[in-house]
Specification:
- It is built from five helices and eight strands.
- With about 220 residues, the protein is an alpha+beta fold.
- It has a single domain, classed as Glutaredoxin, CATH 3.40.30.
- Strands 1, 2, 3, 4, 5, 6, 7 and 8 form an eight-stranded mixed sheet that branches.
- Helix 3 links the parallel strand 4 and strand 5.
- Helix 2 packs parallel to helix 5.
- It is globular, with a radius of gyration of 20 Å.
- The chain starts with a helix and ends with a helix.
Length: about 220
């Protein structure tokens, strides 16, 4: 009897666990579209004078506001828990929208982020207060932007310019209202748990699509 239990634990249980997680990812772990056709960035000035676009990129979009240096801890958390873990993915980027006039603050923040790791795919773009407010409203976010033009949350934009997130009970086994249009950048638990999971889902979605396209070409 004991021998059978040991054999079950060693051989059968790992296979069952693998099948559960493998089928789980494909069957219910999809990230719904909350807002379609998000606007592009209107050729806004970037910190390095490069053209920053959202289309064909998986973007973590944020709004830094007038006092971004007051949020250094938040950006360090984003760097370590989300950016650094996914920066190797070719089409993954961070874009933070900033008010014109905050360039010096951003340069200081970027220098501190570079001390942690490379931030080549983290872009800062600058716009007028009116342009920032208009753009934020176009996302159709329930939570209003702050008076200093910052947002508490960051958002996932997919390659087709859709805002992605969670609707009620998106995931199997959930007993709560899982509606989530953004992720609290100041909350390590929110970043480490829900956002990290959702970024994995969206990246897996595109990896799967890429594999399918490659298979079709080979056929």
């Amino acid at each position: 009897m004991k021998k059978n239990i040991v054999l079950f634990i060693l051989f059968i249980l790992p296979i069952v666990a693998y099948l559960f997680f493998a089928t789980g990812i494909n069957s219910f772990m999809t990230l719904p579209v909350l807002t379609k056709n998000v606007n592009e960035l209107d050729n806004w000035k970037s910190l390095n004078d490069e053209k920053v676009v959202l289309k064909d990129k998986i973007t973590i979009l944020g709004f830094g506001g007038n006092f971004i240096l007051n949020q250094k801890g938040t950006y360090f958390n984003l760097n370590q828990k989300i950016y650094d873990k996914n920066k190797a993915f070719k089409d993954f980027q961070f874009v933070t929208i900033m008010p014109l006039g905050s360039e010096t603050q951003v340069e200081e923040l970027v220098s501190k982020l570079k001390a942690l790791n490379t931030v080549d795919n983290w872009h800062f773009v600058f716009a007028t207060p009116g342009e920032i407010q208009k753009y934020y409203l176009s996302l159709k976010i329930k939570e209003a932007i702050q008076t200093d033009l910052s947002a508490k949350k960051v958002f996932i934009i997919d390659k087709k310019l859709n805002l992605r997130g969670r609707k009620a009970k998106t995931f199997v086994g959930s007993n709560k209202d899982d509606y989530k249009e953004g992720y609290d950048a100041a909350s390590p638990s929110d970043l480490y748990n829900e956002m990290a999971d959702d970024v994995k889902v969206i990246l897996a979605e595109y990896r799967l699509a890429l594999k399918r396209n490659n298979s079709k070409r080979q056929i």
